[in-house]
Amino acid sequence: MDELLKILKSNALETNEDIAKMMGISEAEVIARKKEYEDSGIILGYQAILNEDKLDTDLVQAIIGVKITPVKDGGFDNIARCISNFDEVENCYLVSGNFDLIAVLRASNLKGVARFVSEKLSMLDGVISVETHFMLKVYKDKGILATEEALDERLKVSP
Amino acid sequence: MKNLESYISDKVRDVPRSGIRDFFEIVAERKDVISLSIGEPDFVAPWHVREATAYAVTNGATSYTANLGMLELRQEVSTYIKDKFKLSYNPAKEILITVGASEAIDLALRALLNPGDEVLYHEPCYVSYAPVISMAHGIPVLVETNVKNNFMLRASDLEKKITEKTKVLMLNFPTNPTGATLSHDVAKELAEFAVKHDLVVITDEIYSELTYDEDRISVANFPGMQERTIFIHGMSKAWAMTGYRIGYACAPNVLIEAMMKIHQYTIMCAPVLSQKAAIEALKNGDVHVAKMRDEYHRRRNYIIAELNEMGIPCHTPEGAFYVFPDISKFGMSSKDFCMKFLNEYDVACVPGTAFGASGEGFMRCSYATAFESIKIAMKRLRHFIADIS
Ligand SMILES: Cc1ncc(COP(=O)(O)O)c(C=O)c1O
Q1: What domains lie within chain B, and their CATH numbers?
Q2: Strand A144-145 relative to strand A140-141: parallel, antiparallel, unpaired?
Q3: With an 8 Å Cβ cutoff, is B287 touching chain A?
Q4: What is the layout of strands, in order, in the sheet containing A101-107?
Q5: Which of B20, B159, B219, B374 has CA atoms 20 to 30 A from the CA of B120?
Q6: Is the ipTM of this complex over 0.85?
Q7: Is residue A107 part of a domain?
Q8: CA of B314, closest CA in chain A: separation in Å?
Q9: Is B280 in CB contact (< 8 Å) with chain A?
Q10: Using CA atoms, how far apart are residues B185 and B194, in angstroms rounded to an integer?
């Protein structure tokens, strides 16, 4: 992966000035390359990674396995796009194995998930079955551990 | 009983206290210091290595191993060295697993030196070299390197110090504390010097994985060199495994046998769990090493850019995780500069003199520290030099 993308993936808030110093290029070049990635849709956005367990909300997340019948021409894409378009769906992937699609769903409460699954998802043409797994606890998200890391126990000066 | 001091051997009594220890004691007492004084990675050992250690102990890996180290580990070392350095060593008799590179250095010197034999080493350097040479009854003969040569050692400087007593040349590139590496031409020049004077070469390659701009080159790669070289490396730096204490020496069988004699009677073998962990690290650790190297590389670029902006001269070190800026223009000794910076801005850098008198006018900043801390440290350095300029 390109160095600039690696840096942004680990901290998108790094300033252009600091990125320029890390990469040994000019700030103008950093800005131009960022823009190129944004324009070409390689960078889709910048978001904070939250540990939502620490927020006092009733928010519910579920991972839903979906079996579907592919259709001529569109294959899996049409129905996958249709599912992805729902605001409640945060991620959606075509996968190998028992399911065809995995969707990650967010709703403000249990009922919200139930409603989405029974009233929207299951009703879609081509959906054969769904299997819902509620998320109970987050251990790691976007490569970041949700638990506190160990303290730095190194000696303060060493040869 | 007489004064206990008088029982201490002359040799040991004569070894001066490490300059870095003095500094350590001052820093250790202080809270909330940002330390750029740490000579070990800020990363913990990769998880797969830690997991393999736990698995090994759970399954009862608690016994001694062969004196040379586990054959499987020696095989992994052999494959790694062949792969990365294009050097072939027979795992059955040319590789010895030690307790850190530290032990390997000590063994090599003790195996080679008779009282009065001279060892050429370059300064500024790792704090242990001169004391370890002395304790092995050798005479450390220092050769200064300087910023004009990017802290590379030149054969012409060595020529001035060679005598009939010279037996060993000790090298450490990339260098702690300067981050210096050898260009191909200079490495060749040093190799030719060693061959010409028929010296044994101990090359401490502990930082060789951490080079940023060019391919690594070892003196051992040049004609006539492998047969006279003790190649020392280990898991501490690039694999972030300092506390595991695993290093190794690769050398012709005669030398390994001699080192092994000392090792078997003093150490027996390196700890088995650490050996198991090292096997895992060498087998599956490449991606993690590469990731950490990338991170160090970014930090190095950042610090160099910052120092440049501040107008503090600093050669761009090509390896290790240290920068060695020239602070002489501020008109203070290295020690005074570092103490004042520590006292006024709570940032700890090591005075260059901790690595030999030739380090006067410089300080060592380690970038084995979280990037956010480096940023703060550089901001504070800006304020500090504005105060004193
Ligand atoms: C140049 C050099 N050699 C050897 C060592 C010791 O390494 P080990 O942990 O393998 O004993 C260090 C550690 O700081 C070092 O900087």
Answers
A1: 4-45+287-388 (3.90.1150.10), 62-284 (3.40.640.10)
A2: antiparallel
A3: no
A4: A89-94, A101-107, A60-68, A127-134
A5: B20
A6: no
A7: yes
A8: 15
A9: no
A10: 14
